[in-house]
Amino acid sequence: STLASLVSRAVEPERASVRIGGADVLDLDLQALRRDVGVVTQRTEILAGSLHDNMTMFADEPRSAVEAVVAELGLTDWVAGLDAGLDTMLGPGGTMLSAGEEQLVAFARLLIRDVRMVVLDEATARMDPVTESRVVAAADRLLRGRTGILVAHRLSTIRRADLVAVLSAGRLVQFGSQT
Question: How far apart are alpha carbons 79 and 74 in whole angstroms?
Fold first, then answer.
């Protein structure tokens, strides 16, 4: 979680301690960094509004773009199963989502924003195995062609990683490729 905060500059790191693409994050434009880096935490904020509004964060995105993201993440059947599809009202006074479904909304938000780096900070920690499989499949689609940082305690979450770093009390203990 600390790493996610440092990469996105939610917490300011010490100079030259965190680099992205060889550049010190402190030298990167903060707004550009936040446009390019998307973070999904254990809890996703669902706002009072439609599923479409929650996926776009109320931005003026064409419905066809949102439908394409839903399809790309493999969520077409899930959305079709909701009372009013993308127009289903969520949040206070609307449909309540499971923890996994909230994560799916968060993934859609990042895909709509077309971020370059995705940080999944314990994104599967609060869900049941059935929902977890849907979230893992969607995460794989989200990460395709992007840099991903997976913060996880579950071995099932990190098995897909090309490179694994083990941190302890904020220090790097082991770093290497996964076989």
Answer: 10
Residue 163's contacts (CB-CB under 8 Å, 6 or more residues apart) are 175, 176, 177, 178
32 SS3 class: helix
Q: Which DSSP symbol is given to 63?
A: H
How far apart (Å, rounded) are the C-alpha atoms in residues 19 and 39?
17
Q: What is the tens place of the pLDDT at every residue in 74-84?
A: 999 999 999 99
List 23's β-bridge partners, or say none: 20
pTM of the model: 0.84
First to last CA, the chain: 25
Do residues 3 and 168 touch, judged by C-beta distance below 8 A? no
User: Angle, to 10 degrees, between the axis of helix 129-143 and the axis of helix 99-113?
Assistant: 10
